[in-house]
Known about the structure:
Blueprint: H1 11-34, H2 39-46, H3 50-78, H4 80-99, H5 104-132, H6 136-168, H7 172-175, H8 177-191, H9 204-227, H10 232-254, H11 268-298, H12 303-309, H13 311-331, H14 334-350, H15 366-386, H16 394-431, H17 436-444, H18 456-491
Helix pairs in contact: 1-5, 1-6, 1-8, 2-3, 3-4, 3-5, 3-9, 3-16, 4-5, 4-8, 5-16, 6-12, 6-13, 6-15, 9-10, 9-16, 11-14, 11-15, 11-16, 11-18, 13-15, 14-15, 14-18, 15-16, 16-17, 16-18
Amino acid sequence: MLGGAVETCSRGRKRLVLVALCSGLFMAMVDNLVVSTALPAIGRELRAGTSGLQWVVEAYSLVYASLLLTGGVLGDRWGRRPVYLAGLALFTTGSALCASAGSLAVLVTGRAVQGVGAALLTPGSLAILRHVFTGESERARAIGVWSGVSGAGLAVGPALGGPLVDRFGWASAFWINVPLGVGSLLLAARILPPVPRSGARPDPAGQITAVAGLGTLVYALVEGPVRGWGDRLVLGAALAAVLLLAGFVTLELLVPSPMVDLRLFAHRGTGAAVLAGFTVSFGFFGLGVFLSLYLQSVLGYSATAAGLVMLPATLCTGGTAIVAGRLCARHGPRLPLAAGLALVAASVAGFTRCGCDTGFGKFWWLMPLLGVGLGLTFTPISIAVMNAVEPARAGMASATVNMFREIGGVAGVAVMGAVSATRCASDLRARVPGAGVLAHSVVSGGGHGLGRGLPAAARGAVDGAFVDGLHLAMVVGATALAVMAALVLLLMRRSDRANSGAVG
Length: 504
């Protein structure tokens, strides 16, 4: 194990630290979307509709987003290395629970355990990297590699999950994490250095209001299309979410040791970067979940074929993120970030041209476009924030960035899912008179899911309604991304560089 001042580490040992951090991060990022290709199979076997499948995704993302800040604070106070190792162990345990799940409830529970583990390891990963790579130039390159692995992990998830699901069933998409997790844990325990603690204090009131606020918001958005937007539980959850999240912001402004670094938003560059992270996840996660359902349930692709459709995005994301690190080191994050957001917006909007019988030749080009855009966003966001804070606040800043990324993903799946499901149910009722029961089955599950086993006419109506809902959701996502690209150009100064002055 490394000892002494990290600054004196040889280049070879620093590379081993980077490998150890990237291996754990890659596993966590892969799991964000590896489940997407397994959703149709999970829906068939566990009799889950679109709302149930949203919970499979949201259980992970919601817990991850809610506890990222706590993970950062715990790392600052108790040591980033032990908290990172604990996160890896929990993530591996949660993966085994998911793989052995025989019901939707157990699967959702396992996904939540995975989220706890990911929340502990992710902020520690970037904070340790920030401590080991002390030079601005080498840090920018290291963050570029780290971001490339992060982005590639997100994009490779569907490509890896597809063949596993077709060959071994949906549980294999989770079993694969067990040996990877054990290997990453052993490597990290041997290689990662001790990092000085900052003595940060926990913020239990902030944590409780954050978890409760996000949870009630997601509940309202996911269950709204199922129960009806006028349902008392849905309306009550929406009202509670507004009050709890407002209370969370108020608490963070008043408590002496807040877990959210709101000062990041007082700086034009870092504030824009954090919001950009939220927005790119909003569009990407919303696209990823519903694109997989579209490819398999509407176009009839196998899980493997659906995963391979994302392969060009995988390759382009990783490569572009590394190049983006070098661009940021020379020119600052503003232009690469704005360009990346615009490219992701264009790719999301492009899927509004896809119908019930669209061939791969008509949309293949959207995948590399998406990958390049993602690669151009991940690295500038991390560099803009991590180089603008002093080392003692690196854990909190990392957690804040990643929290907003994950909340963006939670919001993307929930909002775009609510838009899609509401439009789908409405169109289905218009297409098939008296189709209320069928529409409820498609959204809530327990019956035909997304139309499997229905007569051809009814299946065609379900597919058409689903595509109409998908188109509207893509418009929402693309609009948010395009607006954010313009805001980055306006809010980030032209002189913003990777070595921006410290915030606060």
